[in-house]
Design brief:
The chain is of the alpha/beta class. The protein has two domains: about 50 residues; about 250 residues, 2-enoyl-CoA Hydratase, Chain A, domain 1. The chain is about 50% helix and about 15% strand. The protein has 14 helices and eight strands. Strands 1, 2, 3, 4, 5, 6, 7 and 8 form an eight-stranded mixed beta sheet that branches. Helix 4 packs across helix 13. It is globular, with a radius of gyration of 21 Å. About 40% of the residues are buried.
Length: about 325
């Protein structure tokens, strides 16, 4: 069993107690409905208290939850007729990024997303959702294909970052990411990106140059992990909680700075609590955003994407 997160421990323990009472009532044929109802009411109050007062580090833990829905989970719930496409036509197929063609509300679209695993075996297969350069080149191939056939592109971001290994660097990791940034800026079709878990460094940004960028309520988006930032700033990775607060990596922070276009509400306790309900929230957002972007011309799409990123950040000009 996965060890519960610290801030969630009271909720987890109360849920376990309720399940124990239900099992006792069932096996011993004893009426414990009153006690169970009281505990369920207390659980609801506790969840409301905890999940409406989450700190940045708490959201980091939820974003990393082992059972958090992945790209494939959302594809299954939201889209129909999905056909996965493989390979970058140069080196190989990187399973840390998946992509293909599907139907969304009757419209053909291209889906691209980071894919991590939920078990150790699957994470090894998916390289823990950290792509090699061939993964980003596969993504770019599918983007250019979507542009050729006038299909909107939907990207799901969920990675700690691009794989930093020697082999990845030898095959041009930095160039592959930079190429994606350059090419995505000029795509003539609508591009929507959603951070569904962790959005780490350039490995996330390589799928993030979009007309509309959204984040799930408990996802994170940052140039480096809190542990990495703490190691650099204070030479102590254990200060990750303080780093998470200082870095402004939550959806609320990024919306306040106008880096993202919107926040997608999560079910109480995180998206892993109810994948279908969470997929419905995401579907509503995609439908609204795609309806808006479909009305824009090719030039308007490019210009809106350009303007979006030019407006990010603040500066003051000083007279010389």
């Amino acid at each position: 069993m996965t060890k519960p997160m610290n801030f969630e421990e009271p909720v987890v323990k109360l849920r376990e107690k309720i399940e124990e009472l239900k099992e006792v009532a069932k096996t011993a044929n004893v009426d414990m409905s009153g006690e169970i109802s009281t505990l369920e009411s207390r659980l609801q109050q506790l969840e409301t208290k905890i999940y409406t007062n989450m700190e940045p580090w708490d959201r980091v833990q939820v974003a990393r939850h082992a059972q958090r829905p992945t790209t494939l989970d959302y594809i299954e719930q939201i889209f129909s007729d999905f056909i996965e496409l493989h390979g970058d036509r140069s080196f190989g197929d990187d399973e840390a990024i998946i992509g293909g063609i599907a139907s969304f509300d009757g419209q053909p679209i291209t889906i691209i997303g980071h894919q991590r695993g939920k078990t150790t075996k699957e994470n090894i297969r998916r390289n823990f959702g950290m792509p090699h350069p061939e993964g980003y080149r596969k993504a770019l191939r599918l983007m250019k294909q979507a542009e050729k056939f006038n299909r909107p592109i939907i990207c799901f971001i969920d990675t700690k970052g691009a794989y930093p290994g020697k082999a990845a660097e030898e095959r041009g990791q930095s160039e592959a990411i930079a190429r994606n940034l350059f090419e995505m800026a000029g795509l003539k079709v609508p591009v929507i990106s959603v951070v569904i878990g962790e959005g780490g460094s350039g490995g996330a940004l390589a799928l993030g140059v979009a007309n509309k960028l959204y984040m799930l309520e408990n996802s994170t988006y940052s140039v480096i992990s809190p542990e990495g930032a703490a190691s650099i700033l204070w030479k102590d990775a254990s200060l990750a909680k303080q780093a998470a607060e200082a870095m402004k990596i939550t959806a609320l922070d990024l919306k306040e700075m106008d880096i993202i276009d919107g926040i997608i509400t999560e079910v109480a306790g995180g998206a892993h609590r109810d994948v279908q309900a969470q997929a419905n929230y995401l579907k509503d957002c995609l439908h609204k955003s795609l309806s808006e972007l479909n009305t824009l011309s090719e030039q308007e799409l490019i210009e809106s994407r350009y303007d979006k990123f030019r407006k990010i950040g603040e500066f003051i000009e000083l007279e010389s």
